[in-house]
Design brief:
The chain is 70% helix and 5% strand. By secondary structure, it is mainly alpha-helical. A two-stranded parallel ribbon has the order 1-2. Helix 3 packs across helix 4.
């Protein structure tokens, strides 16, 4: 569960690694209800996707490599 005000929310949602909503009481309530009502097998799948998403996109060495690629592309010209 993540707020749609956090810049990585799209990656989380697109990877099936979690859910995003507004950062207010109603949004948090919807997210908690979604998680609580989700079948256990689906929660397990979401957990596995969250781990894979983290390792692929946000693990520090991957994040550094991604940043370096962006910088190289930007300043290579």
């Amino acid at each position: 569960m993540i707020s749609n005000k956090v810049n990585i929310w799209r990656e989380i949602v697109n990877d099936g690694a979690g859910f995003a909503d507004e950062d207010d009481l109603a949004g948090v309530t919807r997210l908690l209800k979604l998680w609580i009502d989700m079948p256990a097998a689906e929660r397990d799948t979401t957990r596995a996707k969250a781990r894979a998403c983290f390792e692929r996109r946000f693990e520090i060495n991957r994040a550094v490599d991604s940043l370096l690629r962006v910088l190289e592309e930007r300043f290579a010209a």
